[in-house]
Give the backbone structure.
Amino acid sequence: MGERILQKIAVLVDFSDNDKMLITNGIKLSAIFRKELCLVCRLKQKRLRNEAKKKLNDCIEKINREVTGLKVSACIVEGPDSEISEKMADDHEIILIITDAKNYKKYSKAVITSPVPFLFLRSQNDELSFKNIILPVDLRKGISEAAIWSSYFGRFNKSKITVIAANHKGKNEQKEVYNNIFIIKKLMQKFNIDHKIYKGFRSSLRNSFEALDFAIESNSDMLVLLGSSAITPLDILIGLPERKIIGRAENLAVMLVNSRRDNYILCN
């Protein structure tokens, strides 16, 4: 019987000053979820492969000196940016990808095909506790994917989950939001997760922005956001809501969960 492959938390590194912040939070999350930490280097020029390997090994040695009991690995991923998440998930058992918020545009196409979430962090996010999580809930059925990832933090990190529900005047829209809230409430109660549910003031179109404002005002750690289900010509022209939210997130981490496909689950 072959060796069991461990799921991994990936940190995209480019050997810049921001790597320290990303790796620190990667170590934190790897410990929370009891997963292997994997440092991932994106390589566009094959002639730099040996140099990249050396730098990755140096990073691993440094982590091993400073952190005990953590399994750390590294890999080099080649190919188009749009395919990076599927390659990492399928070839390396990556379950979550951590990167700098400034890289959203670079990986925006990868996000919409990704079977695993992206976590976008900023340079000032030295070490988040991930104890206060905000989850906006609209009328889309895919919200369960974002809710499941929120529940992982509640289960394994004892995080408090605050749900901001969209507010609609139409009865059909109200029913869809209510059904989502009912499912999420059952999920939180099943795992005895500390949670609160608030009815917001905005409809589904602006619900995520309302949740963003709430998260910033309440000094929360992270916003768990369901990515756009459909991309219209207007979105291409003015930008997707998630791009705007990540750009405005200040000290807030933003986890972006793909709404277009089922996400891989976290194995205990």
Notes: Residues 171-190 form the longest helix (20 residues). DSSP finds nine helices and ten strands in the chain.
